[in-house]
Design goal:
Layout: E1 2-5, E2 11-18, E3 22-26, H1 37-46, E4 51-55, H2 71-84, E5 89-94, H3 96-105, E6 111-117, H4 134-143, H5 147-159, H6 175-180, H7 185-192, E7 213-218, H8 223-236, E8 240-245, H9 254-266
Helix pairs in contact: 1-9, 2-3, 3-7, 4-5, 4-7
């Protein structure tokens, strides 16, 4: 395990594999290296042509955390990894990790290309928006040590899983790990809640994201939701490409997406 030190002193743990131009991969909510073998597999596949950074976002896994949280801190974490990579890197983000990549690309020097898979913005009426007090409610549940309720609230309100499907969730072997990082759900929420309201994306938030960008979704996902978000993001970026992956849903197969990412980043 390697670590990079963020601006506020937080230690960001990462695995570094392969050789060649640097790629940093950014996970979504409720995921980190020990919980998500798909990202480790993606790193392995990409490491044939690139130096790949697979890291634990702050407050998760082997990374530390520093209070109070602010959205800017995770951008600084990514900047610390780019510095470790020599000052420039391409970045891939999945789900809400893609929102972090977009925000970082608007302000961090050294990001040369970005690839995003199913950033979960809600830009139309394809599904209900998240509640207006989504982040505040999550933080309150964690403050009251109701971490199990926080995780279930996220799964219902943000992911869109019907509440009746959550029976027995606490029997999942990963449940204790999910509870450990429940406080970080609000970290993602603070970045995406305002763009999960069923409204058009703000025209100016990513105006400085001018590097080549690849926007992807899967054809088995909610096309109105995920596909609509990818289309909306692509429409805002001056050098964006769109790609829909056949046979894929939100849990994209690393073996399917790796060659697509590699081909784009090699150009």
């Amino acid at each position: 395990m390697n670590t990079a030190t963020s601006k506020d002193g937080t230690k960001i743990a990462f695995d570094k594999t392969g050789s060649g131009p640097a790629i940093i991969i950014v996970n979504g909510a409720m995921q980190y290296r020990a919980m998500d073998p798909s990202m480790a597999k993606l790193a392995e596949l990409l490491s044939k042509d690139f130096t790949v950074y697979n890291y634990d976002r702050r407050g998760r896994g082997e990374s530390t955390d520093t209070a109070p949280f602010a959205k800017e801190r995770e951008i600084e974490d990514l900047a610390a990894l780019i510095e470790d990579a020599g000052g420039s890197a391409m970045v891939y983000g999945i789900s809400s990790g893609g929102a972090l990549v977009l925000d970082a690309a608007a302000s961090v020097p050294g990001i040369t290309k970005i690839a995003l898979y199913e950033v979960p913005f809600i830009v139309n009426d394809s599904r209900p928006p998240v509640p207006a007090d989504y982040v505040d409610h999550l933080n309150q549940l964690v403050k009251e040590d109701k971490r199990d309720e926080a995780v279930k609230y996220f799964l219902v309100e943000a992911v869109g899983i019907p509440a009746e499907y959550l029976g027995g969730m606490d029997q999942n072997p990963l449940w204790p790990r999910m509870l450990d990082i429940a406080h970080t759900i609000a970290y993602d929420g603070s970045r995406v809640a305002d763009v999960m309201q069923g409204k058009p994306l703000p025209a100016d938030r990513w105006s400085k994201v001018t590097m080549p960008a690849l926007l992807m979704d899967g054809d088995k996902s909610n096309k109105g939701w995920m596909g609509g978000a990818a289309d909306a993001i692509a429409a805002l970026l001056p050098h964006a490409e769109r790609r829909t992956l056949e046979g894929q849903d939100h849990n994209v197969d690393s073996a399917v997406i790796a060659p697509i990412i590699a081909e784009f980043f090699k150009r």
